[in-house]
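User: Transcriptional regulator, y4mF family, Arthrobacter subterraneus:
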Amino acid sequence: MLINPSIIGTILPIMDGSEGVDEIAKSVRDARKQAGITQRDLADLSGVSERTIRAIETGTGNPSMAAVIAAARVLGLRVEVR
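Assistant: Predicted structure for Transcriptional regulator, y4mF family:
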């Protein structure tokens, strides 16, 4: 299910270093808020735990790439490795 079709095509770059993590965290958080859904909603829609969504949005922990991609897809974001 795609939540926010207005941001389709927005790219989340996966890069070395904390800048990439910070950019992904901000992009996912901003897209979720723009979509008007909670972290729990995003977790349910993307098939990951709410704790994992918090980790993605804060750039903490070690969420799997599959979890990041699942959350991004729900929000209409695309993940690209650079």
